[in-house]
Write a structure and sequence with these properties.
The chain has about 270 residues and is an alpha+beta fold. The chain is built from eleven helices and nine strands. It folds into two domains: about 130 residues, Winged helix-like DNA-binding domain superfamily/Winged helix DNA-binding domain (Arc Repressor Mutant, subunit A), CATH 1.10.10.10; about 70 residues, no CATH class. β1 and β2 form a beta hairpin.
Length: about 270
C-alpha cells in the first residue's frame, strides 16, 4: 500500500467527467461527500435557514443527495447508515435537513512534507489561515483534531477509572466461592463434590437444590449417618459413573459391575 496522501481539487466538479449524467458508484458518492465538506468554519444559508458549520461539515438532505447521485432515497439512507456505523461520518438532523460531518476530516486535510508525511493536524478553527478562491487554506495548520483527541481522552479516562476501582476493590467481580455441602467433614464434602462432577461429565448434571437435597437425604439413609460409609457409597457411584446413589455392594459384586468407561480405558 502506498504511503502519503493527496488532496482532491474542488474544481474537478466543474469538469465534464464529473458532470457526466450517470448514477454514482459508492466511491464517487464518498468522494462527493469529501468535496462538499467545508474546509473551515463557516456560516451558510441552507433552504432559508442560516446555520453554522464547522470544518468537515456541510448541510444536505436525503433528497438532495438522491438527486445528485441519481439514487433512490432508500439507497442513500442505507449508504449513509453504513458510513455512520463505520465511524466515517456523523449525521445530525436539523429543521432544514441533515448536517453531515466527516469524522477526522482535519486529520486527513493537514499539511504534508515532501516525503508525504503528515506534519500537523487541525483544530477545526480557521484562525490564522486564509482561504483563496479554490477553497484551500494557505499557511501552516497546527493543533489536534478535536474529535480524535476527545475520543482518546475519554478512552484514557475510562481506563484510569477502571484501575482506580480495581485498587479500591469496587466494581471488581468477586470470585465465586465453592459451595460446601458438608462443612463438618472435609473428606465427605470432597467425595460429594466429585460425585457431582461425574454427573456433569456424563451429561446428567445434578444442579437444582431439590435434586441435591434428595441425593444428600438418600445418602444419609443408606449410610445410617456413618460418614466413612457415606464416602464409600459416593466413591462407588463416582467410579462406576452411576447417576444415582446405591447401597454399598460387596467387592465381588463390584468386580462384576462394568464401568461405562472401562472399554475406553482398556483399549
Amino acid at each position: 500500500m502506498k504511503s502519503g496522501w493527496i488532496k482532491s481539487y474542488r474544481k474537478m466538479t466543474e469538469h465534464w467527467i464529473w458532470k457526466y449524467k450517470e448514477p454514482y458508484d459508492r466511491r464517487s458518492a464518498w468522494q462527493y461527500i469529501l468535496l462538499e465538506a467545508y474546509f473551515c468554519d463557516s456560516t451558510v444559508a441552507h433552504k432559508g435557514e442560516i446555520i453554522h458549520v464547522e470544518r468537515g461539515q456541510f448541510p444536505t438532505s436525503i433528497r438532495d443527495l438522491a438527486e445528485q447521485w441519481m439514487w433512490s432515497k432508500g439507497k442513500v439512507q442505507r449508504f449513509l447508515n453504513e458510513l455512520e456505523t463505520e465511524r466515517m461520518i456523523e449525521l445530525k438532523r436539523t429543521k432544514s435537513g441533515t448536517l453531515l460531518t466527516v469524522v477526522n476530516y482535519g486529520f486527513y486535510q493537514g499539511c504534508e512534507d515532501s516525503d508525504g508525511t503528515l506534519t500537523g493536524t487541525v483544530t477545526g478553527t480557521p484562525a490564522g489561515h486564509s482561504r483563496d478562491s479554490d477553497g484551500y487554506a494557505r499557511g501552516t495548520l497546527t493543533g489536534h483534531n478535536i474529535r480524535n483527541k476527545e475520543y482518546k481522552e475519554d478512552k484514557e479516562l475510562k481506563k484510569e477509572r477502571r484501575e482506580e476501582d480495581k485498587k479500591e476493590g469496587t466494581n471488581v467481580p468477586k470470585k465465586k466461592e465453592p459451595v460446601v455441602y458438608y462443612p463438618d467433614d472435609e473428606k465427605l464434602n470432597q467425595a460429594f463434590v466429585e460425585f457431582l462432577k461425574m454427573r456433569r461429565t456424563i451429561k446428567k448434571p445434578l444442579e437444582t437444590k431439590t435434586g441435591i437435597t434428595r441425593a444428600m437425604n438418600r445418602l444419609e439413609k443408606l449410610s445410617g449417618g456413618n460418614n466413612e460409609l457415606a464416602i464409600q457409597i459416593l466413591d462407588q457411584s463416582t467410579y462406576h459413573c452411576w447417576q444415582d446413589i446405591y447401597e454399598l455392594k460387596p467387592d465381588g459384586d463390584k468386580k462384576q459391575e462394568a464401568n461405562v468407561f472401562d472399554e475406553w480405558r482398556n483399549a
